[in-house]
Amino acid sequence: MLNENIKKLRKSKGLSQEELAIKLNVVRQTVSKWENGLSVPDSSMLVALADELDTPVDVLLGEPVTESMPDDMRTISEKLEVINLQLAQRSTDKVKAVRWILISLCTLIIIVFLAFIAMQSSYLGWNYNNPELAVVGTILHGCEFVFVRFAPIAFAVCTIGIVITCKKR
Question: I want to staple 50 with a disulfide (CB 3.0 to 4.6 A). Which of 57, 78, 85, 134 is the partner?
């Protein structure tokens, strides 16, 4: 919600990301990250952002405008904490998804290796005078040849990826 509000208010003011970034003394990529929900401004930057966009901080955070209370900074801080927790959860979910994709790929590589072992290259004994068998046998041999050379590298890379994405306990 914060990211959408920043983008909507910036556009309603007719400002580009670059212009807003210059006014806030940050780089354009920072504004882009805020608008894409990849990060959130800290509480002091949120106040400066609200000032530049001529809007209360509550509106930026998606709350209806109410009377100012003395503990506004605490409220803002709590809301930012919730947003940061949501971003952290989203990041954790992405890492888990990548880990499961890598585990699935390793499993697929093992299954295909086992299938090639079970086949024992039986197509090499086929009668290649028959054109259809020659084409199929050549394709099978080519697939096995390429797979046996590249699968160990892919397996090693996936295994390293799994180890990297595993959370240290």
Answer: 57
> Is there a domain that residue 111 lies in?
yes
| Residue whose pair of structure tokens reads 């295994």 in the numeric block | 159
The gap between the terminal CA atoms of the chain, to the nearest Å, is: 33
Short-list 111, 99, 108, 112, CA closest to 159: 99
What is the residue range of 56's domain? 2-68
Residue 89 burial by CB count (10 A; 0-12/13-18/19+): exposed, middle or buried?
exposed
Please state, in angstroms and as integers, the Cα–Cα distance from residue 64 to each residue in 60, 82, 87, 92, following that order.
Answer: 10, 18, 23, 31
pTM of full prediction above 0.90: no
